[in-house]
Design a protein that fits this description.
heterotetramer, A: about 250 residues, alpha/beta, Elongation Factor Tu (Ef-tu), domain 3, Rossmann fold, seven-stranded antiparallel beta sheet, seven-stranded mixed beta sheet, 16 strands, about 35% strand, B: alpha/beta, four-stranded antiparallel beta sheet, about 35% helix, globular, binds flavin-adenine dinucleotide, binds flavin mononucleotide, binds FE2/S2 (inorganic) cluster, electron transport (chains A, D), flavoprotein (chains A, D), Dihydroorotate_DHASE_ETsu (chains A, D), Dihydroorotate_DH_ele_sf (chains A, D), iron-sulfur (chains A, D)
């Protein structure tokens, strides 16, 4: 169950262009969070909280890691927070990735830019369950690449950059491995990428993780809806998501 | 012991704090954070005659000490609300206020009549001011005759006390308040959001899909205080105050201005516990400034009248 | 090289940044911080027919991301301003805009005529919206016929281009803008402050001696953007935009909304160098978002029109 | 000339009830400020700057001291600033105390509450010029008393508390020394105290230091005016003051 918690910042560092890794300590979150969930973080002086995915969990050390890109005021300010300071967050928020471990042998993780972090968390969980992981990670350019070696440790990893300055050149959909190799896919990244991926893999089942601007982050305000083929006609990203079956919502 | 109770038409409030319409859904989500029995009342999200999907996303934007929203009255329709949401809230020992909206007089009447029959609802809040829906909403809220007309029709359609929620996007808020008072309103709710816009430099267009949205949060508090102060001198019906409330000190400022109770909106998003926290600190704040009870403080900011 | 120049009726601006009326006095104080020649223009503090002392103190209060002021048009009167302040500003190579106010049509005419004769003033900004003075101000600014009337009379009383400064405290800002355009306004200035109030818990009365004051600063930016966006689609005269500008990004947002130049008010109090700092960073911000010049960006936030 | 400067916080400590002493380093301010001037200090997240008097100046160490009372959001927040952090301020602001040293033998300093600090700065300067100083300092109660020993070092010092919990009981005007002893007075404190002092000492000349809510703090916005008997009919506290001749303005 989601709670309002304080997390202590143990480490903040820039690991790629404008991309910050932050290690946070909180036993409740570290014990209860599952991959795909996010924290709804309060940044001083800002009305709205910022949703940031949990990128990895260390249940023994009671820590979690988040990765975020400096794209605006809130993330810039968050990046300037110092070790030892406290962060207020609501979490663990959202549903997380769900899958039937027994039915999966090999899965594909397809991440774009700052959509990569939640997949890392998922990947570590998948391999613990004996599921093979192939990762395709897209970044804008060489400067932006992060976590390549961590994904390599999980399994085969293909890095793609828009401008070809590192790894393969092009979009992630240009460099997907043979579809026959895998049973399922998980993807997270910008909407155009998600559209391309779900199209390219339309004959496979998969899960997508979505982003939207949020108000409450708890399911009350209806800021973050996405049209869906259910009785209500919509789902809430903050509560029913951020992870949805690829055919469940209309992106 | 500081007395926090307030009695308003149709509402016996154990304290003057309620979540504002649209910022609390129908209470389910926040009931996971705390016991809703702590609240003075609950104002439900707007109900319309039929289910509405609302606007495209993005629906919210952040502004200095505030936010813009253009949800667009998304709701499952009054029948579904009565079927599934009202019973959930009826379990609590807290008065429920139904916020009603519509694009036509007939829709308002229909929604009001439905809540009247349903029971378990203590009062209606007439949303004539939601600035996000193109048809109807904005005109009802900025034209005194139309506001009076819809008030009158809703009063006839139901026996429930009616609180008319005023829009701040007008030159003469006193005129609006008097018009709906004469038309039979039992109370006022004020203020709704100010119409605003944010333009995104990168995409070169308004950030909200709906282009304009309603400005709420601390940014609008001075406007709310001014309007409540002015209106309370010219009407004799009570006012539920709202607009940027974040603390018990803010609540006292609204009481002094002339509000008899208050609603907390945007602040719930920053802190889901904000309502119970305010309720817990209110007695101390009242005492600090020399008040024995909530009713003791109402309207006491009008120096001329003392 | 990014081209920052803008040509408006009576004003050749080397850049679109000017300090807003009332927030910069007559420039003397800020001339100790930087060379006023950097500015696009200077808008002087309001001038009235005779000297005015203004309201009692306190005259300012702080609000979330904003402030309230009720200075009350304190000024030495138009003759004294022409004698002592205009010559000081005339030393700079910067167009001077005179903000004129009055309680009667005759007072407006008198002030306009005086500036017309004086020379060294490039344009008039007609303050029909100052909400702090009980007689006149508020009515001129919220009634389209009266606004048109004062515009018309001031146009006749002087040959200077007239920018009418609109009040945001209205339901129909487009109607106000069209009324003054038809009456001969050469441009618009928008927005003036929103009327607000703060109540002091300790003293149990409004903090400002004048009770109400004008809300300015970041808090009102979304309201300003919305009004400029809406009005710019319905008039063909240029708009000087203002309301909460603190950075070059904010300036771009106003240009996209449809303003041709901007004024910076409250931000001067936080940072006396804010105007030259914005001017220095504007080329970089324009370039970042793909604009070669200021004029290139004006009105580009209207997606429908592209 | 007043400038926009950054000052480094060297020390922050609470020296009496809700009363904070802060030592700040900035060579420009330490070199140019005179007693009675103030800093117009920016507090994060607040629109308006806060005016705070300079309580003492160490021209050699390039430091100045300010003393302030936590009375609202801004001063509460300022009190939470840590050593090593920077403060933005406009200063030195205002006119400061002016006097003709040669014509003075003994002066009276009369301070109330948080009006005491600027008088300390003045007192140290006066005794350096060989002028005798008698101080009458009023506080609400024992908890609120500060700088008594520092004033004792300058000369005879009478401490008065409203409730008699320390020193003499009553108002400062109840415990003024024999007027014949002194040539001039300087006073700073709440308006009712200033009125009482100027009345009690109406046959003497003196200077008063005033407070008012400020907008610009530089003389441009006319937020801080006080009626005066001059051609304009007013003076600006931020620029023409905060120190005025006792008969110059109408309090
Ligand atoms: C479920 C979820 C998980 C996310 N996980 C990550 C992550 O792990 N790492 C990461 O870098 N980013 C993540 N994002 C995106 C991140 O929330 C935004 O980049 C961030 O909110 C931008 O804040 P800002 O103040 O820097 O930008 P600003 O543009 O100044 O923010 C203004 C407002 O818009 C909102 N906003 C802006 N962009 C987005 C966006 N893309 N999604 C949602 N709200 C937005 C902000 O929260 C804020 O309310 C996630 C978003 C969602 C919805
Ligand atoms: C020239 C001058 C020198 C001063 N020197 C000192 C000093 O040395 N030590 C000290 O403790 N205080 C001093 N003050 C008073 C000090 O400025 C206020 O206590 C402080 O601004 C309160 O800020 P706040 O945010 O805590 O209070 P809030 O009430 O939250 O402030 C709200 C607004 O009101 C203004 N304000 C509130 N009280 C005052 C006041 N008394 N005077 C001016 N503005 C006020 C604030 O600056 C702010 O803009 C001085 C004031 C002036 C004008
Ligand atoms: C996301 C959101 C949705 C809202 N929906 C409604 C609504 O459905 N009906 C209504 O009358 N007011 C609605 N409002 C307005 C609030 O009830 C309240 O009047 C306003 O936000 C001012 O209060 P605040 O500043 O505390 O948020 C909504 C406000 C927000 C922020
Ligand atoms: C202290 C103060 C004094 C002002 N005086 C005037 C005035 O004399 N005439 C006028 O037209 N506007 C006056 N204004 C309004 C500003 O010019 C401007 O329209 C408004 O403050 C919004 O801009 P801002 O948010 O950048 O301050 C004043 C504003 C402030 C804060
Ligand atoms: S952010 Fe409020 S419902 Fe999702
Ligand atoms: S504070 Fe602006 S003139 Fe003094």
């Amino acid at each position: 169950m989601k709670k309002k918690v304080m997390l202590t910042i143990l480490d903040v560092r820039e690991i790629a262009l404008d991309t910050v890794e932050m290690i946070l300590e909180n036993s409740y979150i570290a014990e209860t969070a599952v991959p795909g969930q996010f924290l709804h973080i309060s940044v001083d002086g800002h009305t709205l909280r910022r949703p940031i995915s949990i990128a990895s969990i260390d249940r023994k050390q009671h820590t979690i890691t988040i990765l975020f890109k400096k794209v605006g005021d809130g993330t810039e300010q968050l990046a300037a927070y110092q070790n030892g300071m406290s962060l207020s967050a609501l979490g663990p928020s959202g549903n997380g990735f769900h899958y039937e471990a027994s039915s999966l042998k090999t899965v594909l993780l397809i991440g774009g830019g700052i959509g990569v972090p939640p997949l890392y968390n998922l990947g570590t969980e998948l391999i613990q369950q004996g599921i093979n992981v192939i990762s395709v990670l897209g970044f804008q350019s060489k400067d932006c690449v992060f976590y390549e070696d961590k994904f390599q440790e999980l399994g085969r990893t293909i890095v793609v950059t828009d401008d070809g300055s590192y790894g393969q050149q092009g979009f992630v959909t240009d460099h997907l491995p043979d579809k026959a190799l895998c049973d399922y896919y998980f993807t997270c990244g910008p909407i155009p990428m998600l559209r391309a991926v779900t199209n390219a893999l339309h004959e496979k089942s998969g899960s997508i993780s979505l982003e939207e601007r949020m108000g409450c982050g708890v399911g009350a305000c209806l800021a973050c809806v996405i049209p869906a083929d259910n009785a209500d006609g919509y789902r809430k990203i903050c509560k029913d998501g951020p992870v949805f079956g690829a055919s469940e919502v209309m992106i | 012991m500081t007395d926090l109770t307030v009695d308003l038409p149709g509402l016996h409030l154990k304290n003057p704090i309620m979540p504002a319409s649209g910022c609390f859904g129908f209470g389910r989500e926040y009931s996971e954070f705390y016991d809703l029995n702590k609240l003075g009342a609950v104002i439900m999200k707007a109900a319309t005659g039929e289910r509405r999907y609302g606007n495209n996303t993005p629906r919210v934007a952040e502004t200095p000490s505030g936010m813009l929203n253009a949800i667009g009255l998304q709701n499952p329709g009054v029948e579904k609300i009565i079927e599934t949401e009202v019973p959930f809230l009826a379990e609590y020992d807290v008065p429920v206020i139904a916020n009603i909206a519509g694009s036509t007089l007939e829709e308002y009447e229909k929604v009001a009549a439905a809540f009247n029959e349903a029971g378990s609802v203590s009062a209606l809040e007439l949303n004539i001011s939601c600035p996000n829906v193109k048809e109807g909403g904005i005109q009802f809220g900025t034209n005194p005759e139309m506001a009076a007309n819809v008030t009158n029709r809703v009063k006839k359609a139901s026996n429930l006390p009616v609180y008319v929620k005023l829009s701040p996007n007008v030159a003469d808020i006193i005129g609006m308040a008097k018009a709906v008072e004469e038309a039979g309103a039992d109370g006022l709710s004020m203020i709704n959001t100010l119409t605003g816009m944010q333009i995104h430099q990168g995409s070169r267009k308004p950030l909200l899909a709906n282009k304009t949205g309603g400005l709420s949060g601390g940014a609008i508090k001075p406007v709310a205080i001014r309007m409540i102060y002015d209106v309370s001198q010219h009407v004799s019906i009570p006012i539920i105050g709202m607009g940027g409330i974040e603390s018990a000190e803010d609540v006292l400022e609204f009481l002094l201005a002339g509000a008899s109770a208050v609603a907390v909106g945007t602040a719930n998003f920053q802190n889901p516990y904000v309502c119970p926290e305010i309720i817990d600190s209110l007695p101390g704040v009242l005492a600090k400034y020399g008040f024995q009870s909530v009713t003791d403080a109402i309207g006491k900011g009008h120096e001329d009248e003392r």
